[in-house]
């Protein structure tokens, strides 16, 4: 069996982590042959709760989980880690946009970027879940200059999973038969869920989902809005933000980053933009990517119609505004 790798989860005493830690520890992310040492970071007042989580992880009797290190010290948490799930941050409440969390959360990602820079392995893969995830990931990367920019990502996989589920329900097939739905841009209400290139698997042969459904109006309106507002709908119903589905998406994202994507299939990840498809550069923008040998590549050459380009431009503009806002907050707090 391989040597254990160190994996950190921040916000480890919170809602998302409660589902995510089990998925990671039972081998859903790094594989059934990969032993793990889990580093669990939370803030000092949560150390008692975290102790309970550590007890439960022990009581799960999971063979791959070799040890657990609970801590409130980022220097300990990020030491020699190969993968980082940055979940710890304040969630939004009903009536808020995720962007409203910048003031409360952006500083966390500055501090954690600096701690990653000093302590993590240089090939660490970082997934930012805490909102606003794209801008937090951009800030984290800026404060970790010794780690390649390509190693920082933001989670839009939950949006992708939501979009895939909506298309599957519309077509009337199991969700596993839908692929290549894209989320462009920001994990916010300006995101563009795009099913133009989505595929439906019907008895082994693949057809275009839009051609199958023949309802352009549904794709441009109901589908887009349902996915854009799904996070808010869950908050309105649960009085808390999504947790189980967010954990599943985080596990999917990191698994694909480590294990790769199947031939001909792509997934969506917030990654440092190179300006592809007219997106602004140097923001963390969600693109369709393929992954091989733990390296993602933006899918090039997709046909983009006028509607799609307008949506891509709009979400890009929001990310530029958030970037300005984030650096204003950081410089005011220095
Ligand atoms: P939660 O409040 O249940 O848990 C957050 C945890 O983070 C708490 O235990 C808190 O003490 C901890 N924390 C706060 N500051 C910290 C710091 N500096 N270092 C380490 N830990 C810290 O929230 P949750 O439901 O688990 O959500 C966490 C974040 O994930 C929120 O910002 C939420 O909006 C976001 N989220 C993102 C997505 C996505 O798709 N990108 C989906 C769901 C939730
Ligand atoms: C989600 O999409 O469910 C999360 O980002 C939580 C939220 O604030 O909507």
Low-pLDDT segments: none
What hetero molecules are in the model? nicotinamide-adenine-dinucleotide, (2S)-2-hydroxybutanedioic acid
Helix-strand topology string? EHEHEHEHEHEHEEEEEHHHHEEEH
Output the structural class: alpha/beta
How many helical elements?
11
CATH architecture assignment of the largest domain: Alpha-Beta Complex
- The overall strand count is 14
Question: Which CATH C-level class of the largest domain is it?
Answer: Alpha Beta
The percent range for helix content is 40-55%
Mean pLDDT: 97
Structurally, how many domains make up the residues?
Answer: 2
Pfam families: Ldh_1_C, Ldh_1_N
EC number: 1.1.1.37
Catalytic activity: (S)-malate + NAD(+) = oxaloacetate + NADH + H(+)
Domain Lactate/malate dehydrogenase C-terminal: 156-328
Structural commentary:
The chain has helices at about 15-25, 45-60, 75, 100-120, 135-140, 155-170, 210-215, 215-230, 230-240, 245-260, 305-334; strands at about 5-10, 35-40, 65-70, 85, 125-130, 150-155, 180, 180-185, 190-195, 200, 205-210, 265-270, 285-290, 295-300. It is globular and about 55 Å long. With about 325 residues, it is α/β, with parallel strands linked by helices. Helices cover about 45% and strands about 20% of the residues. A hairpin with a 7-residue loop joins strand 8 and strand 9. The protein is built from 11 helices and 14 strands. The protein folds into 2 domains: about 5-155, 3-Layer(aba) Sandwich (Rossmann fold), CATH 3.40.50; about 155-320, Lactate dehydrogenase/glycoside hydrolase, family 4, C-terminal (L-2-Hydroxyisocaproate Dehydrogenase, Chain A, domain 2, Alpha-Beta Complex). The longest helix is centred in the last third of the chain and has 28 residues, at about 305-334. It has a 6-stranded parallel beta sheet with strand order 3-2-1-4-5-6, sandwiched between helices. A 3-stranded antiparallel beta sheet has the order 7-10-11. Helix 1 (about 15-25) packs parallel to helix 10, helix 4 packs parallel to helix 5 and helix 4 (about 100-120) crosses helix 11 (about 305-334). The structure holds nicotinamide-adenine-dinucleotide and (2S)-2-hydroxybutanedioic acid.
